[in-house]
Amino acid sequence: MNRARLRDLGITIGNLPTGRHNAITDVRGVRVGHRTLIYDEPRIARTGVTVIVPREGRIWSDNICAGFHALNGSGEMTGTHWLAESGLLTTPIAITNTHQVGVVRDALVEYAITNGHSKGWELPVVAETYDGWLNDISAFHLTKEDVYEALASAKGGPVAEGNVGGGTGMICHEFKGGIGTSSRLVDTKSGQYTVGVLVQANYGLRHQLRVDGIPVGCEIDSEHTPTPGWEELRQGGSIIVIIATDAPLLPIQCKRLAQRATVGLARMGSIGANNSGDIFLAFSTGNHIPADACAPVDLKMFPQHHVSLHLNPLFEAVAEAVEEAILNALTAAETMTGLMGHTACALPLDKLQNLMAKYRPSAKRDRRDKRV
């Protein structure tokens, strides 16, 4: 069976409608770009970098409110100290492998300087997950030119998923993982807003995997679909979650949104394992904060005391979109063989469909699957 997105398989989760592309790019102005490296000589490469670029590239001069949350901190996301202090995201976000965070971060700094975006110093946000089972991670394949190519390729619309960009060599619930995305439309008292999510999924054990509450991982044993077989994979893993919304949120509200990624991850069966880097960032494009502002800036915000009318729907949207983004990473990713002949097998889509039909043959008939 050809690889597909979750909804293309006839499987719908959650109750909120999706955006047009069911992707983080449904939030206006958000672009995504990938640079994927797959080759065997001179050393095995199964890696890459993914960039999320808000404001159609104007993020350097038109900053946005943001906040982050770490469910478990066995990982890295640069720039978070200043983000927590200032409440602002001032650069694109990049995701790559564990050993190349520094290269990617430095490339973003140099890109800002050489393209006239820098105001004197930069602290870019770069996150990572570990791809060393499939990728020769100590060969340091990525260069600054690869980061530049990812930035140049960043665009709106549909987003490539699975074995692409930073997700190229990743493994999720002992199946091939990688990049996934999803979105939700939220109706509030002040109007309709969009929540979009992008994940780099590289965490979890097979027996923990749930799909809409169904114990899919327990039903697919290693005789049917082999596991990677590396004991260290069973000790943890990592996931990076990036959440975007056009709702007018202040930094503390963005942080609260980032915390709700934990709910979507728990629905998938994650326990936030000890060696897992589970780090989430949320940003809001609902306010404009000029980088060169010399006077107070007027901001809009959702009223905190009307949570049931404003924030609760956003929390629900994050939980649903995180869950579906991870599933899209799993259903899109293809079986990959890499370093030392190691193989990560794709989640078998026909088996997934059969299991969903077995457990809930008619449960989804009345659920909405709207796109606007």
Provide the descriptors you would attach to this structure in a database record.
single chain; 372 residues; alpha+beta; L-amino peptidase D-ALA esterase/amidase; 4-stranded mixed sheet; 14 strands
Strand order of the largest sheet: 4-3-12-11-10-9
Q: Return Rg in Å.
A: 19 Å
Major sheet attributes: 6 strands, mixed
User: Overall mean pLDDT score?
Assistant: 93
Q: What is the percent of helical residues? A: 10-25%
Indicate the structural class.
alpha+beta
- Number of structurally distinct domains: 1
The appropriate CATH architecture is 4-Layer Sandwich
CATH superfamily: L-amino peptidase D-ALA esterase/amidase
Helical stretch tally: 8
Quote the CATH topology.
L-amino peptidase D-ALA esterase/amidase
* Total count of strands: 14
Order of helices and strands: EEEHEEHEHEEEEHEHHEHEEH
Global geometry? globular
Brief rundown of the structure:
This protein is of the alpha+beta class.
Describe, in plain words, how this protein is organized in 3D.
This protein is α+β, with helices and mostly antiparallel strands and 372 residues long. It has a single domain, classed as 4-Layer Sandwich (L-amino peptidase D-ALA esterase/amidase). The chain has eight helices and 14 strands. The protein has helices at 80-86, 101-114, 144-153, 216-219, 251-259, 261-268, 311-332, 349-359, and strands spanning 31-39, 45-53, 62-73, 88-89, 93-97, 125-129, 171-172, 175-176, 178-188, 191-202, 236-245, 275-290, 336-337, 343-344. The protein has a six-stranded mixed β-sheet with strand order 4-3-12-11-10-9. A four-stranded mixed β-sheet has the order 1-2-5-6. A two-stranded antiparallel sheet has the order 7-8. Strand 7 and strand 8 (175-176) form a beta hairpin. It is globular, with a radius of gyration of 19 Å. The two termini are 29 Å apart. 53% of the residues are buried. Mean pLDDT is 93; it is low at 365-369.
